């Protein structure tokens, strides 16, 4: 690791003050940041330790939802009884990510701010526009099996690696931040960025801001939900693709649907037009297949990751089956 | 030459290396260290405390060999900066036994032949102790999932799962559907 100074903050304003110094990132759980420092990807001059800030509580919010403090650990959230009963989608997504040791330390705020696991981002011997703006993209013509099929740019095809964030996107969570210009609330969809021509900027959090909490709205879709994660091994692996689905049904008629995809884009992927088109329809194999096709209509595959397009469509179908309990009739191309 | 006595013409100092005081309770004894901020808990345990039971495997949080119990919870000590844990209570593999009596998990690993080379074993045992305290794994499949942060390259997994279930059943955890270790789809 490179040498760095260390500041321990005991309250939010002290943390923000110390964070003003150049190259002084916040240290929370450290499960990503410490690794990035070891790899030489992050080379901070100072770490601002925020582990002791009093923003770890999980508590009811004014509008009937739940507010999760930014420093609540993944384990604390996933096993919280209120989260398990009212937002089981979130609990399931969190528990499908990382290992128990990491979940015991990693925090909600850190989860939102974790960097991509693109091999080229981590390999300082290769070019990477996210790590060193303007240096190029090693993944574009390299090994790109894990990379984006939606919302990518010629500058970056990295994906956001989180499971938790996919569920938070489906649940229409919001992010409460505070800093230079006071407090503001960012809708989850607007928190992370697509790469465009500035892939080194992952989020719309400003340099002088800190995440204070993530807020869940009252509706948690506890009756009909699914988190389907497809990965290369049964546990402790990042998603090739994942689907967070929240559903409301009247019989077989779809009253509400929220579908967020993980592992396919620079941020959790929602398509509100596709969701709106599904409302009022009868849930059957055709409508679900059409919905999956609509979600994938702008998908573009590279030699290494084109398989993800059909994989994602099928993962969406499986999520609908799990969430609804309705068996979607086998299609002809399933016969094998 | 006309210099003012307060002016600084040149100031070449050693590179600034901040050191921080850090007090930890390790296996029941409290110690204070003067450490560099980039010292991991793993390196502190091994290099400063000579507690080499906690192993350095991947050093990236992916193998679990460095697992120890910090304030009762299992964590990867390779990803933990020691300064950040000032005041914490740490239990390593060296602190599990009571005198000459092994911790039940240590004894179960021996009884079940739950290791070959033994390098991952301290991490496996600390992780298993932490897992049972968490109380979320009740059968072989759940134990496998809950222990996925600990890699065993010798492949002793069946016996590791058996050892853990032996201890958990002694603690009153349901041991039905134990054999064969079906995994979650």
UniProtKB/TrEMBL annotation, chain A:
Keywords: FAD, Flavoprotein. SMART domains: CO_deh_flav_C. PROSITE patterns: FAD_PCMH (PS51387). GO terms for molecular function: FAD binding; oxidoreductase activity. Residues 1-221 form the FAD-binding PCMH-type domain. Coiled coil: none annotated. It holds the Pfam family FAD_binding_5. This is FAD-binding molybdopterin dehydrogenase. It comes from Caballeronia zhejiangensis. The lineage of its organism: Bacteria, Pseudomonadati, Pseudomonadota, Betaproteobacteria, Burkholderiales.
